[in-house]
Automatic annotation (TrEMBL):
Gene Ontology biological-process annotations: NAD+ biosynthetic process
EC class name: transferase
Keywords, alphabetical: Glycosyltransferase, Pyridine nucleotide biosynthesis, Transferase
Domain Nicotinate/nicotinamide phosphoribosyltransferase: 169-424
Protein name: Nicotinamide phosphoribosyltransferase
Provenance organism: Octopus vulgaris
Keyword hit for Transferase: yes
Length: 463
């Protein structure tokens, strides 16, 4: 309970009407940057924080001490927590119903509901808002990553032979820019719902421990500035040559903008090391040149033009230029949903297939989002007071967009559209929400594999 160090929550048990025995709340995206949301990450929160006998004597004591110091008076609901410890053996008397992880849902639809299963624990439903709303982060990373996948797929549809490289087109560079190892793991796992390329190792642990996935992402040997610049400016070509010699097989990436990316492409890769690069091609080995500065869409084109002149190009089935298979480009600087759009347009304009390029994204992928990006909110919509169930809602005259839903909710499909039925008028047999948690037990354990399938982009949809 101490993870909800949010001041206000601790006193809420005193604020509900007398004889409140049931509080029912729901979570939704009210809209925002993207019209749909890829729902992901609730299972991590449930397994990490809610499953099992999470309420213990020690934790109650610790919380009581902290809150008494924090408020300077005894406001902590010790009786309420002791009740859970004694009556439920420390298990949380809550029911959580959620849309299956990986589902893609238009905004303003219910994504999960929370209700107390013991009438004495009405105050518990919204106690866990603070923790459960943190699902905004993995959900928004998964969504932002999904829309970049859709964007790249559209560009592949027009300029690439097929979609075979799609799952490696956007690589996670975001570990260092994350706020913590834990958030890097959570956000990194969310990106891997849509892709398979990552350098955020923490994500592999989350996918393995919370989503039953042995290995959720892959990477390749790649240089960084220090492993090139330690060869000194005049020795840059030696650093490049060393990369090719130390990694003779497979794919190797080499950051090439330490001094002069144009010179690196023209004279180092394009002349001094040209034969080694071509010879590697005979072993299906590949060099990936990484620019890392300048305006992304201009630099990508200029690097392709130089490498195209040096190594030649072919024309693919869509009529776009393609470098030989042994050399490609990765753009890992300044990549976001917005800049990808521009890079894609520029590639087409200069008749280059997007198959020549892969992308890396860091801050924009894991960090440049917040709870408002998709306007995530958790609101009470129903309660039982004096034995009578009543609808509950807010409808601020100062922002109609913040209006909340009423009564018990179901999520149903009507004519292939998701619809949230309110006021308990839904058909629980058609409810897409499934009970994932109840009284301390996880009832649904989604695997990464099925989540990836559910979140697949529709490759055939009008690209
Ligand atoms: O160049 C590359 O090729 C593909 C493999 C990854 C990679 C670079 N990784 C990276 C990670 C964190 C910050 C910057 C780069």
């Amino acid at each position: 309970m101490t993870h909800n160090l949010c001041r206000s929550k601790v006193t809420h048990h005193k604020q509900y009407p007398e004889n409140t025995t049931f509080v029912y709340s729901y979570f939704e995206s009210r809209g925002g940057k993207f019209p749909k949301t890829v729902f992901f990450g609730l299972q991590y929160l449930i397994k990490r924080w809610l499953v099992g006998p999470v309420v213990t004597k020690e934790k109650i004591q610790e919380a009581k001490e902290i809150y008494n110091l924090h408020f300077g008076q005894d406001l902590f609901n010790e009786e309420g927590w002791n009740y859970i410890l004694e009556e439920h053996d420390g298990h949380l008397p809550l029911r959580i119903k959620a849309v299956p992880e990986g589902t893609i849902i238009p905004y303003k639809n219910v994504l999960f509901t929370v209700e107390n299963t013991d009438p004495k624990c009405f105050w518990l439903t919204n106690y866990f808002e603070t923790l459960l709303v943190q699902v905004w982060y993995p959900m928004t990373v998964a969504t932002n990553s999904y829309y970049q996948k859709d964007l790249i797929a559209k560009c592949m549809q027009e300029t690439a032979d097929d979609f075979s490289g799609l799952s490696y087109m956007l690589h996670d560079f975001g570990f260092r820019g994350s706020t913590s190892v834990e958030s890097a793991g959570i956000g990194g796992a969310a990106h891997l719902v849509n892709f398979e390329g990552t350098d955020t190792i923490a994500a592999l642990t989350i996918a393995k421990n919370f989503y039953d996935c042995d290995i959720a992402g892959y990477s390749i040997p790649a240089a960084e500035h220090s492993t090139i610049t330690t060869w000194q400016k005049d020795g840059e070509v030696n650093g490049f040559r060393n990369m090719l010699e130390k990694f003779p097989e497979g794919i190797v990436a080499c950051v090439s903008d330490s001094y002069n990316i144009w010179n690196a492409c023209e004279n180092l890769w394009g002349e001094q090391l040209k034969d080694v690069i071509i010879e590697r091609g005979e072993r299906n080995a590949r060099l990936v040149v990484r620019p890392d500065s300048g305006n992304p869409s201009d630099v990508v084109i200029k690097v392709l033009e130089i490498l195209g002149r040096k190594f030649g190009t072919s024309t693919n089935s869509k009529g776009y230029k393609l470098l030989p298979p042994y050399i490609r480009v990765i753009q890992g600087d300044g990549v976001s949903y917005e800049t990808l759009e521009e890079i894609g347009r520029n590639l087409k304009r200069h008749e280059w297939s997007i198959d020549n390029v892969t992308f890396g994204s860091g801050g924009a992928l894991l960090q440049k989002i917040d709870r408002d990006t998709q306007k995530c909110a958790y609101k009470c919509s129903s309660a039982v007071i004096n034995g009578k169930e009543v609808s509950v809602f807010k409808q601020p005259i100062t922002d109609s967009g913040k209006k909340s839903k009423k009564g018990r909710l179901t999520l149903e499909l009507k004519d292939d559209q998701y619809v949230t039925v309110q006021r308990g008028k839904g058909d629980t047999n058609k409810d897409i929400l499934v009970t994932v948690f109840e009284n301390g037990k996880l009832l649904k354990d989604f695997t990464f594999e099925e989540i990836r399938k559910r979140a697949e982009i529709d490759l055939l949809k009008d690209k």
